[in-house]
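Sanity check

After download, print the first record. It should look like this:
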Amino acid sequence: MTYFLLILCVLGLSTGQVLFKHSANILKTLDTPWKLAFEVPFIGALFIYGLTTLGWVWALQDIPLSRAYMIMALAFVIVPLLSFYFFSEPLTFKFGLGVVFIVLGVLLTIDSK
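Expected structure tokens:
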């Protein structure tokens, strides 16, 4: 159950990053930066980050930080994939190779208890 919560945290963090990028694109169109505080994507990103933080603290009750943090590395895989899908950001062969290493690293560090 705790690992499921950690995966939800990774997905929340990744979603928040996409919303922050969308907020950055909105910021370019605003006449004053403070108006970003009233934009739905920005508010949503902050809300998701808040929930993710609560989930993270909850999960850390049962999993050592060193192990839990390795699972958070999956965000380095998910965020670029979402960026490719939503913002047409390029992905390269080297990126794919890096993804393989990240996923292998995470799999090697998961506790098999």
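If your output differs, re-run the checksum step. Summary of this record's structure: The CA atoms of residues 77 and 99 lie 6 Å apart.
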